[in-house]
Amino acid sequence: MLRRRIWVTLFLVVALLSWVLVPVSAKKVKLTVWGRDLPDDDPAHAYIKALVEGFQAKNPDIELEYVALGDPGLTDKTKVVMASNTGLPDIFQSWGGSVMGGYADAGRLLDLTKELKDIPGSAAARQAMTWKGKIYGVAPFFAIAGIFANEDLFKAHGLEIPKTVAELEKVCDAFLAKGIQPIACGARDKWPVLALYMYLTNRYGGSEAFANAQARKARFDSEPFVKAALKYQEWAKRGYFGEKPLSEAYGDAQQLMATGKAAMHITGSWMCAQYSDPGFTDQSIGFYAFPILEGGKGKATDIMGQTDIGFAATRVARKKKDAVVRFMKYAMDPEPCSAEPGRICSVPGVKSPSRLNAMASAVFATAETVQFWWDQDLPPMVTGPLNDTMQNFFLPDADVKKALTQYEQLVEDNVGPVK
Amino acid sequence: MTDYTVSEIYIRKLRIARRRTLAIKIINVIILIILALAVILPILLPWFFVFKTRLEFSYSPWSLPTQIRWNNFQEAWVAIKIGQGLLNTLWVCMGAIAGTVPAAAMAGYIFARYQSKVTEVLFYAVLVGYFIPVHMVLIPLYQFTSRIGIVDTLPGLFLPMAAFGIPFWTIIYRSFFRGLPGELAEAARIDGAGHTGTFFRIMLPLANPATILAVLLVFIGAWSDYLLSLILINDPKLFTMQLRIAQFLNQYGTDHMPRYAAAAVIASAPTLLLYIFGHRWIIRGTLAGALKG
Fold first, then answer.
1. 8 Å CB contact of A69 and B139
2. Do B143 and A67 touch (CB under 8 A)?
């Protein structure tokens, strides 16, 4: 009788425990991540695919919903939900900088300083995802601007990769004489113009030129900015960017490089995957640091860069912080990072997947100063007008100084006057 | 100086007039060809890309493909789950039509037939809605749909679409109903029909050209919508066609133009077919006065 009671009690306890515990253990945490690229078989999306599939396989207790929104879909949708303060995802792909900072200032982001401060990664990448001393996410990939050069064309015409701006001009003149477009730009899309302008300004005025203007200690129409703009305009007049640079989109610039119709492309290292993919180009392309300007203040080790792939967490994820941190840590894990065929990885121990990537990583390794891409570092209300201002560089009769003065006026109205 | 007879002068003038008429005709034809190309080229362009590899596209984007390859269509279909997108878009289109056309037809009829100071004021109030751009109200719209719990649902997408469409189609129906003889409604009333009966049994069937036009154009509008779908839908299972295609795009354009072009061809096919089979109704509706001020 007693035995029977013990068995019945035991049965009831087990039944009760299973009733209480099973739903708890079966309940998965759902993590919504908004990203840009599809996790498909495109080489440029290899990291995202490895991240999504690998994280899900390694974390069966978390239901990962990865939503690919493309671009500008991702940025537009993020802006609206951040402004509405409703419908925020747990994590979103972010390029860090001032845009992420604006969301942090509005109280939309989740402070992960304590959890992420010890994750190994490059200082530049960590800096990009830090705002006012707080870490909001991770940047497994960091892009730098430099020169993609068609090495076959250089070799065929007996030219050396330029190390100074004067040499660059000579090389451009030589290519022009051979009927080859020296530099592919993609000015129709406006933003591609910035990479070269950032470098020219740096080479004239050093890294303090932009830093001072940004901190409102100098004007955006001060000497280095104007000299760089005039040089840009001079090159456009000479035809370095083709006959009709304003009708050439970024995609056209890529095609010109991919088919050997242009000799150089001054842009971000995110193009390493495409330019080393034999399905995209049959040219031999290398990546080099932007030349120095003899007599200028900028150094070859002053590098322009920005987050290439980064993730930030929002405040709605505060109740699932553990899942968020696991995602962030896996995003910085060598396993998914090793799948990436082109971008420069911020994670130590990840081998360069291609010669082109190794070249870009080597340039990045020399960096003494990393200046964030201006359009990621300036407040969003003045970045669009900057792109519009730079369009003047391609108009032979435009007064670029006047255009920069007008831009300075706009910055004064939105950010504040020079102190 | 040469002397001309009256008949010679007449013939000369006639020739000049003929030449002028011919020149005007040629200019008109050229303008029409340019306008037609502006519409036709975007439909034709993707066909230059869809059968190419990426390398072939890089070298010769505008040439005819060297080989017909269908794999871009298959890969695009799988990569962005076009099938699911088609079904969702179809639901949204149906919802937008059901939300827009009956409401606009009834409102247009009231504003056309029951004119008073109150209906005039109401009509102008509706008219104001036509001038509000979607971009301007995106954030409050998102907040409102969230608050009433319909965000991230298909009704949460087609109801705002209907709200934005109703003012325009009310104006169209009003102008159409005003063009119909009022005696028809009076005769129906004498025969014993009430307001509802007069509208549904007499007036609405007469407005068929306007209704068919509204159905077709609301369908095409809802099918092509990107912005509202992007903002109001979060769940990928509910993504519409345009959202799925936008997944191919990035800041640098697209990584795979031939695949993107194949997706664009698939997505535009239903609206294109609809226009091919329904264009006579669109023209008839337009000529019958539906789009006359």
1. no
2. no
- Cβ within 8 Å, pair A77-B256: no
The answer to whether residue A12 is domain-embedded is: no
- Per-run averaged pLDDT (10 residues), chain A, 419 residues: 65 60 64 92 87 96 93 89 92 91 94 93 87 94 95 96 97 96 95 96 96 95 97 97 93 93 95 89 96 95 92 96 96 94 88 90 89 87 93 95 96 92
Tens of pLDDT, residue by residue over A74-87, are 989 999 999 999 88
Tens of pLDDT, residue by residue over B70-128, are 888 888 888 778 888 889 999 999 999 999 999 999 999 999 988 899 999 999 999 89
pTM: 0.79
**Cβ <8 Å between A38 and B138:** no
Enclosing domain of residue A88: 28-142+306-370
Nearest chain B residue to A34 by CA distance is B234
The 3-state DSSP class for residue B76 equals helix
CB contact under 8 A, B249 and A71: yes
Cβ neighbours around B66 below 10 Å, total? 11
Q: Are A197 and A260 found together in one domain?
A: yes
Residue A124 within any structural domain of the chain: yes
Q: HEC states along A275-338?
A: HCCCCCCCCCEEEECCCECCCCCCCCCEEEEEEEEEEEEEHHHHHHHHHHHHHHHHHCCHHHHC
Q: Which of B171, B186, B181 is nearest to B206 (CA)?
A: B181
Class of domain B71-290: mainly alpha
Q: Are residues A390 and A294 in the same domain?
A: yes
The residues on B that touch A, with CB distances below 8 Å, are: 53-55, 57-59, 61, 75, 79-80, 138-139, 142-143, 146, 151-152, 227, 230-231, 234, 236, 243, 246-257
A37 touches chain B (CB under 8 A): yes
CB atoms within 10 A of CB B226: 15
Q: Which H or E run contains A103?
A: helix A97-105
Together in a domain, A85 and A222: no
Q: How many CB pairs under 8 A join A and B?
A: 96
Which ipTM did the prediction report? 0.75
* Residues in chain A within 8 Å Cβ distance of B253: 189, 249-251, 254
Nearest to A249 among B231, B236, B253 (CB): B253
Interface check A83 vs B, CB under 8 A:
yes
Query: How far does chain A reach from its first CA to its final CA, in angstroms?
Result: 92
Query: Which residues of chain A lie closer than 8 angstroms to B151, CB-CB?
Result: 86-87
**Category of A42 on φ-ψ map: left (φ > 0), alpha (ψ -120 to 50) or beta:** beta
Of B61, B142, B246, the CB nearest to A73: B246
Could you list the pLDDT tens digit for every one of the 293 residues in chain B?
Answer: 556 787 888 888 889 999 999 999 999 999 999 999 998 888 888 898 999 888 888 888 888 888 888 888 888 888 778 888 889 999 999 999 999 999 999 999 999 988 899 999 999 999 898 888 888 899 999 999 999 999 999 999 999 999 999 999 999 999 989 988 888 888 888 888 888 899 999 899 988 888 999 999 999 999 999 999 999 999 989 999 889 888 887 666 667 888 888 988 888 888 888 888 888 877 777 766 555 54
Collect all residues of chain B within an 8 Å Cβ-Cβ radius of residue A314. none
- CA-to-CA distance for A298 and A198, rounded, in angstroms? 11
DSSP category for residue B116 = S
Q: Is A66 domain-assigned?
A: yes
B190-211 core/surface letters (b: 16 or more CB in 10 A; e: else): eeebeeeebbeebbbebbebbb
CB A417 within 8 A of CB A216: yes
Nearest residue in B to A68, CA atom? B247
The nearest alpha carbon in chain B to A67 belongs to B236
Domain count, chain A: 2
Binding-face residues of A in 41-80 toward B, CB within 8 A: 41-42, 44-45, 65, 67-73, 76-77, 80
